[in-house]
Amino acid sequence: MCGIAGFWSQKPLQHNQIDHLKAMTASLHHRGPDGYGFHMDEKNGLGMGHARLSIIDLETGDQPLYSQNNDLVLTANGEFYDYKRIRTNLRLEGFRFTTKSDSEIAIPLYRKHGLDFVEHLRGEFAFSLYDKKQDRLILVRDRFGVKPLFYYNGPQGFYYGSEIKALFAHPEVPRELSKEGVLHQMMHTMVPGTTAFENIHALEPGHLLIVQRKSTGFEIRDHKYWDVDFPRDADRDDGKSADHHVQQVRDSLMEAVALRLEADVPVGCYLSGGIDSCSMLGLASTMQQSPVKAFTISFDHSDYDESKIARGMAEATGADQEEIFLAADELYGQNFLQTMYHAERTFYNTLGVAKWCMSKRVNECGYRVVVTGEGSDELFGGYPALKRDMLKYTYANDPSRLSELEKSNEIFKGAILAENPVTHPALEAACGFTPSWIQSWIQTLGIARPLLSDDLAAELKGYDPIEAIAASFDQSQLEGRHVLDKAQYTWIKTMLECQILNWGGDRVDMANSMESRPAFLDHYVADVAKVIPPGLRIKGNTEKWVLREAMKNILPEVLYKREKFAFMAPPGHTSTSKQMALKELTDQFLSQEKVKEVGFFSPKKISQFMEDYRNDKDPVSLVRKDALLNHLLGFHILHDMFVKEKRTELLSV
After folding, report:
1. Three-class DSSP category at 127
2. Position 599 confidence tier, pLDDT thresholds 50, 70, 90
3. Catalytic amino acids?
4. What Rg, from alpha-carbon coordinates, does the chain have?
5. Lesser CB count within 10 Å: N end or C end of the chain?
6. What residues form the annotated binding site for ATP?
7. What pLDDT was estimated at residue 1?
8. Rounded to the nearest 10 degrees, how much is the dihedral formed by the CA atoms of 410, 378, 206, 146?
9. CA 159 to chain centre
């Protein structure tokens, strides 16, 4: 696990360009505190940097890595699993290796398979590979986007990095917030491939980018090499028994977890009170000889705290549990600012702050790798919104069955669940319905858009962010699919990457030099999950039914029978102490002077929004306003940190 950064200029490099590369790489120190490596090709205008976090091959795994004749150069972030078997097969075919690093297998695989080499890589990764003979730079991102990778194609050259801050460390990369992006930040749903910043792009999951030098500039080609690809209804083989699917899930997960326990340093587990992380701990504790170190978050609000179940799971598996209790003052203040700096996008809930605090504690305990449960809900149908869509489809003629869902997860209405149905024509056209997961964010957008300044509102009058999101979906992956498949697919292509794997995953973990490994997002597990019939993924009113059955003998009975509980931190309105902590941030970043300085919102309208928020007594309305308030704060913090370059001043405390 590391950080990568680099640039490619049309002109030969000047001697001072090494300083720019060092600055870009140094900005990723938190991702790779164990050493830097650089490749400078002044004649060809290429600079490649690497910040290393040593996990595998502690002695000889420094990067960049080179082919035998130095015509291929690699810098990689992440892990390639099953690398020992792949390396041995390649060695038998005559390829030679100079390290024991998992990353090195990418070089001979590319030599053997060309651009199809990505199909032979398994894991979570983002890397750059320069081919001197072809004079092309290849950027690759893993199938689900666990590892981040960003780029900017400017008039002076092409720039890339594991995080946006690495791009901004180069003086030729402009710092400007995206005007369309502000609407997506407020409604929490990004268009795939976009960021909060103007002209800064995210390489999409399952894509590779080929940057080819031409006499007139760089030609850039984006190629999708993988997608979830749920089976069409007409092609679905539902003849397999439920037991078959249960066994397939067991087998694939056992292998995925075993591969993610491979490291030259100790590996722990994140442990909440949910099925996903408990399954990971149950499998890991059986596979490992020594007790597994488990890390749990505990909140100061009983409605959001799952630590009791987590404690029971830790006791049942003999895990060495570390419990991190988080109160209001720890979810705001400097921790909020730190999380925003690393996330580089806004977030609706302080769960990201809680995860940042937990990864800090993991690091303090001497661990730099954990296995996590992210991705299970996406693949096995776990979220309340997915179940809502499934039940509406299944029981279209029996609305009374939906009341079972409406009685639960009440505290999440206004954020992850809409209290009333919402539709949008672009989504209706793309999916045949408006997925429940986005309905609440459409409602949030309805509150946020009127807060824009008059000038920006006029400029964005013709821009519909929902239409842009719908247009980004590959229609061939939606046609002929089941309602549940469509709901899962659209969530995976948007919220999984920009939320779960961003401020809920890599960005807050690597902020503290700690690698998270989500075994559920192994693409072989995905291949098993996507063919499970929708009626078994969500069976009646039971979400993740096949996964429950597969893991039932390692889960506590209370968890096996328990309905999905969305993991969130207590919102700001839920206690006086949180309101006080939140007020310190709003006084600093949402004052009339600050809002006017940034210029994207109307100071008068923001002031009225804050007054309405303080006077609101409706819990559903407050949950939505809490989410929007976090986004508004985050947007103005991003402006100060990255556009105004006040990061040192803000984080100096």
Report:
1. strand
2. very high
3. 2
4. 24
5. C
6. 297
7. 67
8. 70
9. 22
HSE-up of residue 345 (Cα within 13 Å, Cβ side): 35
Q: What is the torsion angle, in degrees rounded to the nearest 10, for the CA atoms of residue 575, residue 576, residue 581 and residue 587? A: 120
What residue type is assigned to position 533 of the chain? P
Q: Which amino acid is at 461?
A: K
Distance CA 518, CA 270 (A): 10
Band of residue 404 on the pLDDT scale cut at 50, 70, 90: low
What is the domain partition of the chain in residue ranges?
2-224, 233-379+495-561
Using one digit for the tens of pLDDT, what is the confidence trace for 358-387? 999 999 999 999 999 999 999 999 999 999
Q: Which CATH architecture has domain 233-379+495-561?
A: 3-Layer(aba) Sandwich (3.40)
Q: How many CA atoms lie within 13 Å of 309's alpha carbon, on the beta-carbon side?
A: 23
Whether a cis peptide bond, with omega within 30° of 0, leads into 192 is no
Given a contact cutoff of 8 angstroms between Cβ atoms, the answer to whether 104 and 80 are in contact is no
User: Taking the domain 2-224, which CATH number applies?
Assistant: 3.60.20.10
Omega within 30 of 0 (cis) for the link into 435: no
Could you identify the residue written with the tokens 């900005």? 27
Structure token digits, residue 259: 């591969």
Query: Helices H, strands E: what count in the chain?
Result: 29, 17
Q: Against a cut of 0.85, is the pTM above it?
A: yes
Element (H, E) at 239: none
DSSP string, 190-225: PPTT--SBTT-EEPPTTEEEEEEEETTEEEEEEEE-
Tokens of 179: 């005007």
Q: 463: helix, coil or strand? A: coil
In this predicted structure, the answer to whether residue 528 has a pLDDT above a threshold of 80 is yes
For 328-375, the three-class secondary structure string (H helix, E strand, C coil) is HHHHCHHHHHHHHHHHCCCCCCCHHHHHHHHHHHHHHCCCCEEEECCC
Report the binding-site residues: 102, 297
Q: What is the 3-state secondary structure (H, E, C) of 128-153?
A: EEEECCCCEEEEEECCCCCCCCEEEE
Rounded distance, CA 269 to CA 279, Å? 10
Query: Hey, what are 647's tokens?
Result: 């990061």
Enumerate the known binding-site residues for L-glutamine.
Answer: 102
- Are the CB atoms for 639 and 185 separated by under 8 Å? no
The CA-atom distances, in angstroms, between 480 and each of 207, 475, 487 are 24, 10, 13
261: how many CB neighbours lie within 10 A of its CB? 17
Kind of pairing between the strands at 293-299 and 320-326: parallel
Contact 634, 589 (CB under 8 A): no
Task: Note the Cα 435 to chain centre separation in Å.
Answer: 20
User: What CA–CA distances, in Å, run from 226 to 214, 235, 635?
Assistant: 27, 19, 32
As given in the structure block, the two tokens for residue 245 are: 């699917």
Element (H, E) at 376: helix 376-380
Structure tokens at 47: 């600079």
* Tokens linked to 405: 């869902």
- Sheet with 293-299, strands from edge to edge, namely 320-326, 293-299, 268-270, 369-372, 515-518
Closest among 255, 576, 566 to 413, alpha carbons compared: 566
Q: Closest Cα to residue 272, out of 337, 354, 162? A: 354
Residue 15: predicted pLDDT? 79
